[in-house]
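Hey, can you fold this one?
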Amino acid sequence: LKRFVSALPEGLQVRLVVPDLVRHERRYRMLTDLSQLAASIRPLIRSLNVDVEFSREAVETAVDRTIEGVYRDLHLESFHPDWSRTKWDDIVNAAVYRRPPFEAKGEKGFRDQVVIETARQCADMLDDSEVVLVTRDKTMAEGARRQLAGLTHARVFVGPDAWEDFATDVAGGIDAQGVR
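Sure. Predicted structure:
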């Protein structure tokens, strides 16, 4: 994400909005990784006769502080969608019939769908701004393109390089209409 933000062309006015789900997912992964790390080094700590103990509360506080610092340093905003505006019937149908972002095998796709729904609601709210969804997941991108197709100011890019090329063209004054 830092590389993505640092690669933005100078002078390009960008508001970086991150789905609330992404923040929570990052927090969960950091807490899980730290928990696994703590479990793996516990025997080493005991063998060294060192008294080190980390409370869950202390770890959660450190993780939250770290995430807040990243949001502050990169000027990220968190967006929480209004779930009452979500078309759950469409999502359930897409899941049942395995339409992207849901995959043909397994149950993958729900979190991707939440991100797409967040982008859709963000685009509805910010109809005077270009809304961009960048993902490395081609299945998610396919689902996002289908669901955001009616919004002329919403774009989907596969990978940060595609977005960087587009942003550079826009910052350089090149008309970017029709680029998807």
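The first strand starts at residue 16 and ends at 19. Let me know if you want another pass with a different chain boundary.
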